[in-house]
Amino acid sequence: RFALPTFLLTDRASGTVITADFDATGAVTRRTFVSGIAGAAGAAFDPLTGDLFVAGSDQIYRISGFDGLQP
Predict the structure, then answer these.
(1) CA dist., res. 56 & res. 33, Å (int)
(2) Contact indicator for 31, 71 with CB cutoff of 8 Å
(3) Which pLDDT belongs to residue 70?
(4) Sign of the CA dihedral 2, 7, 51, 71?
(5) What is the pLDDT of residue 38?
(6) Nearest-5° angle of CA 28, CA 47, CA 35?
(7) In this predicted model, what pLDDT tens digit does every residue of 8-61 receive, in sequence order?
(8) Residues with Cβ < 8 Å from 25, sequence gap 6 or more?
(9) 11 with 18: CB under 8 angstroms?
(10) Neighbours of 33 (CB within 10 A)
(11) Cβ–Cβ contacts within 10 Å for residue 58, how many?
């Protein structure tokens, strides 16, 4: 879970998943969350396992190990 309200964004050109955190004042902080995924086109967490799934240009990536997530 993220500490602040957070959106996951994908950047196809750079192959990254980016977080956009919003604090109490509405200020946005962007961070690279995952990189190295060619053609990253979408990302979502599995609510049961907490795994992150990212659609790349040629496959779907499953990334595990996000327990206690605090970006």
Answers:
(1) 15
(2) yes
(3) 45
(4) negative
(5) 94
(6) 50
(7) 999 999 999 999 988 889 899 999 999 999 999 999 988 888 889 999 999 999
(8) none
(9) yes
(10) 21
(11) 7
